[in-house]
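Problem 12. The chain below contains 352 residues. Write out its predicted structure in token notation.
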Amino acid sequence: MSKHSYLQDFLTNLPDFVFDYIEIYYTGESINTQIGYCIDLRIFLEYLSKFKFREIKSTEDFTCDHMAKVRAEDIIRFKAYLREYQSTYISPDGREITRTRKNSSYGINRKLSAVRGLFSYLYKTDQIPENVTDKVDMNKLHQKIKKPLTTQETLRLLDVIYNGEKTFTGRYLTEYKRTRQRDIAILISYLGTGVRVSELVNLNVQDVCFDTSSFIVTRKGGDEQEIFMPVQVENELYSYIKERGELKDIKDKDALFISRQGKRMTVSSVEKMLKKYCTAVGIIDPDKTRPHALRRTFACRLLEDGVDIKMVAELMGHKNIEVTHKYYAQYNSAAKREVMRNIDVTGINANQ
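Solution.
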């Protein structure tokens, strides 16, 4: 089943106003985001039917009149409920299974974001008299430091991508040789442009233009942006597209990056591919084996080279420069380390 079919099946079990919100109002987002919001809204409606509207037996029976009766207190109690709750579902063999679910502050905020979006939509379209979610604060998140790849780690990763014959053996070597140029093109494009992994896998062949040394990506929110390619990125993409043209049994003729099955590569397949190469060279930090680590590395390298932070924000596709400031803080740690290393703690040298 395709993701679009899965989304449609999901929406049939939700109220009409949720269908309208996801399908009509909530435009410009990826299919994965839409599915995620559907799941989160179903959890919210199941909570309401369990604790506020006990007469409702099915989530699709909710109406806007029910939403108009939801108070800020209900949302606050929903926040507390999300820390740990039980969900029941029917297994393929007909057994009823109950599981305990837990959410971190991040998980709670994500579900609240879905609820906020729905109430905002209902209020703006005059289907409810007020948006009570405005009265409810999101959980405060503690920022975790996620470091970019070091220069040494980047060099080791590039070495194994270009020279995997020295590392892989057996079927792993066979697989490496079959996908070598594709993998090089993906990871060099990632390191050289800082695009998101979802933007990378959604590229079509016609999005790449060698006359302008650029390609077009669709950013979060649906806006298109022209990404200019460094020379190395352009060369590797040219070599890959030439090799791609010789492939047989391509099922997705438009997709730029093709899987072994001839279909468009997915985000998860890129994640697995990167983790394979990272593991091969001893990069085991989970934050550094995910594709976003390469995007983070791209941003920090630009800042180290003195590129203005506003330009970095534009190249990264950040609408809010505060997001870019997080990368600046990571880059700035190197400068702070240098200052601290040169401090004369005793003051002896200062008196000489």
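Discussion. The longest helix spans residues 170-193. Students who got a different answer should revisit the alignment rule from Section 12.3.
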